Amino acid sequence: MSMDTGRGRLTHPLPNPPLEGAGVFPLSQGEGRGEGGVCSELSKVFYSDSGSTSVEIALKIAFQYWQNKGVKDKTRFLTFKNAYHGDTIGSVSLGGMELFHDIYRPLLFQTIQVNSPYCYRCHLGREYPSCKVACIKEVEDTLKKTHNEVAALVIEPLVQGAAGMLVQPTGFLKELRRLCDKYKILMIADEVATGFGRTGKMFACEHEGVVPDILCIAKGITGGYLPLAATLTTGEIHDAFLAEYKEFKTFFHGHTYTGNPLACAAAIANLELFEREETLKKMQPKISLIEEGLMKFHKLAHVGDIRQKGFMVGIELVKKKDTREPYPVELRMGHKVILEARKRGAILRPLGNVIVLMPPLSIKEVELKRLLKITYESVKVVTE
Question: Of 276, 306, 324, which residue sits at a domain end?
Answer without folding.
Answer: 276
